[in-house]
Amino acid sequence: MQPYLKKESGSAQWMVEGKPFLVLGGEVHNSSASSPEYMEAIWPRLRDLGLNTVLAPIYWELIEPEEGIFDFSLLDSLIGGARSHGLHLIPLWFGTWKNTLSHYVPEWVKTDFARFPRALSAEGRILPSVSCFSGECRRLDARAFAGVMAHIRETDRDGTVIGIQVENETGLLDSPRDYRPEANEAFACPVPEELAAFLRARRGHLAPDLARHLRPESLSGSWREAFGLLAEEAFMAYHTARYVGAVAAAGKREYDIPMFVNAWGVQCPGEPAGIHPSGGPTAQMHDIWRCAAPALDALAADLYLEKFAEECEAYTHLEGNPLVIPEGRPDRWFMAHAFYAYAEHGALCYSPFGIEDAGHLQSPPPGAVVQSIFQTFEGRDTSALIRGTYSILASLSELICQNRGTGKMHGILQGRLMSQTVELTNYYAHISFANFVDRMEIPAGGMILELAENDFLLAGAGYSVRFVPKPETPPHFEYLSIEEGTFVQGRWVRRRRLNGDELHPVLPAEPALLRVRLFGYR
Ligand code: DGJ
Question: Is 327's C-beta closer than 6 angstroms to any atom of ligand 1?
């Protein structure tokens, strides 16, 4: 049975082998997957970190080095490597665009500006990105991607591949829009009626940042009249989404498994398009992407910013868009972000970027070049943190999937405040980070899962909890038990019983799992 996304009202499940699956991911560096030999040293480490899924690029330029001649050997070796290490695989299709640039198109595409025109800046400068108005590139990207999907369908009999990312961080940098003559002509036309009708119907539900600029009464007018300051970005979003949507649809016709795109988001509110990629699937462009690329199952977010909670909120605003984070921070924020995303937003996937570096900054494996262009590891060994967090999440994965969308799962994330209040069914849980601040090497965070009326799981690190009964609940309570332990095949297995000096539940400085049972009385 092939994987798919099951969307229910208010939640979604990534179905793998007919069952909900929690993707505990990790994305390898851009270049690692271009060499099976290089990957050899990496596979066992991924397994050892407790991942169940690896996200790894596949490259159009290496799959179709000569036009019409396809070589799937790298893809085969990735699937084989994942399979033999007990991992699932989500390939990342580095096709026309990767971080907006066309660095991974085959050389016969890269060098032929006449057949595969580049985007132009307002001054006529040739930009390093194929134009989203290049119908020929779109046709051939879609053909290659369809070939990839057909190959996976034919060869991946045991379902190692559970989904695929289409392109990587699309949009246009350094220019608010493409100024090719055909782009100028399209920009001078009224907003296409299909988009205008779609946005009119969604009035009241649109992404807040889009709604602030959109003038719904002007949707029959020009892009400028309808979208004001966001005109260029909205225009680029529509045309980029149509391109990527066509590539995804061609792939789906061959093998219909979950497909998503990832966004390089707006870094500072109000920053002009072109500073962040113009037309990529940022949260403010979600409604336009949904209209123009219906084949996509999810519009995912690469989340590196410290305003993580806000970003999760923004990327789940669009109804039916599950939270998928193909790139997250691999550093000391890992634990807090991962728990928070899964618990508070029912995230289907969390995946720190550059995963193979974890634990190897000081001592790279023989022959490996550690890529430190991305410095969020801050020179720390995060492997124990990743391993500890993923082992707890793996033991809870069934419960997490079952509780998505029920309101019984709550994320905890240390922000600027030293406390957080979580509203449970019968209690308020007052979370305090204060006692840990000096002792913590990592930001505090975690989750609370309500198993039953007086029965809670507390996971994470760096916080203590005080329960306060809600007005309608018996006003007094005592702890029946506080235990440290784990879930094994759906059964709680106690390690330590903590009913002495502990007095109330405390999550230590490293990832832990507690079960807390209360009884209330009048
Ligand atoms: C985001 C991109 O999507 C990744 O491929 C990689 O380039 C990282 N940025 C590096 O920080």
Answer: yes
